[in-house]
Specification:
By secondary structure, this protein is an alpha/beta fold. The protein has helices at 10-22, 33-43, 54-60, 73-82, 97-109, 124-131, 156-172, 236-248, 255-275; strands at residues 2-6, 24-29, 49-51, 63-66, 86-90, 114-117, 139-145, 178-184, 188-195, 198-205, 212-218, 224-226. Helix 1 (10-22) links the parallel strand 1 and strand 2.
Length: 281
């Protein structure tokens, strides 16, 4: 299977290594001359084309992984799907619920894979959350802190939020009941949601002194189960890339991944509205 990568920036370099291990990394497209040079040095000798125009990947590849700034995602995803290519797009896929719904529908109409790059779904803490009997939980606390903001993601809600929201959506299998509250700034957000009656406390901060993620479940009056520090048994990004290939090959059901693209966007947009003082629809 010929795979294409759009974007050879900080994260794109990691994606390229994973793609080269699960398929034929046929094309890397990046408009920046310096990044093209890096890509040629790393992968050109193995036969990978390094180009400036994304259309080359749409023409030469069976599927494309989009690792470009968020503002470019909608147009690139739409163009790839219109060209008949399967797509993986890094988070956030888009920040507009209507755009997300339209892209998901376009993929369905053309029987193509559209998946979002929600890496947390391929980490041990997520697998443990899936195995946990959530009906026994009296509360969930998720705290994610980073030490550097990402200008390409816009703000912390869309920069860090998609990972944890995707994990929670997959675990509950449903949208949250309600956004109870949300407050914060461009760099730090705190929100409370309820899922199937269970309160979920969320904190995202990307200008913290120390980077970490905490996932705790309250099972009794003072009994907490910690999940976030479980050791990884595999490389999450490689597992995500393999999962995408299996979706394309029909070895996995595509429904959940397509639903998550739309559900993550709509849930974060609900939090965004709450941050701006707008009531739930």
């Amino acid at each position: 299977m010929k795979l294409g990568l759009l974007g050879f920036g900080y994260w794109g370099k990691n994606v390229a290594r994973a793609l080269a291990r699960v398929g034929d990394l046929a094309v890397i497209a990046d408009p920046h001359h310096a990044r093209q040079g890096e890509a040629k040095e790393a992968f050109g000798g193995w036969g990978t084309q390094v180009v400036s125009e994304q259309e080359v990947a749409f023409r030469e590849c069976d599927a494309v992984w989009i690792s470009t700034p968020t503002a470019l995602h909608n147009d690139s995803v739409r163009a790839a799907l219109m060209a008949g290519r399967h797509v993986m797009c890094e988070k956030p896929v888009v920040t507009d619920s209507r755009q997300a719904a339209a892209l998901v529908e376009l993929a369905r109409e053309n029987e193509l894979v559209l998946a979002g790059g929600f890496l947390t779904r391929f980490m041990e803490a997520h697998y443990a959350l899936l195995d946990f009997p959530l009906a026994q939980a009296r509360g969930i606390v998720v705290e994610r802190r980073n030490t550097q903001a990402s200008l390409s993601d816009g703000d912390v809600l869309w920069g860090l939020g998609p990972h944890d929201i995707a994990s929670l959506l997959a675990a509950f299998g449903a949208l949250p009941d309600k956004v109870v509250r949300a407050e914060g700034t461009t760099h730090r957000v705190q929100a409370t949601l309820t899922w199937q009656g269970i309160p979920v406390e969320l904190t995202w901060d990307w200008l913290a002194e120390k980077r970490f993620r905490r996932l705790r479940l309250l099972t009794g009056a003072d009994t907490w189960v910690e999940l976030a520090d479980l050791p990884e048994r595999h490389e999450p990004l490689l597992a995500e890339a393999q999962h995408w290939v299996e979706l394309i090959e029909g070895r996995r059901d595509r429904a959940e991944d397509a639903w998550l693209v739309e559900a993550v966007t709509s849930t974060l947009y609900r939090i965004h509205r709450a941050l701006n003082g707008e009531p739930e629809a």
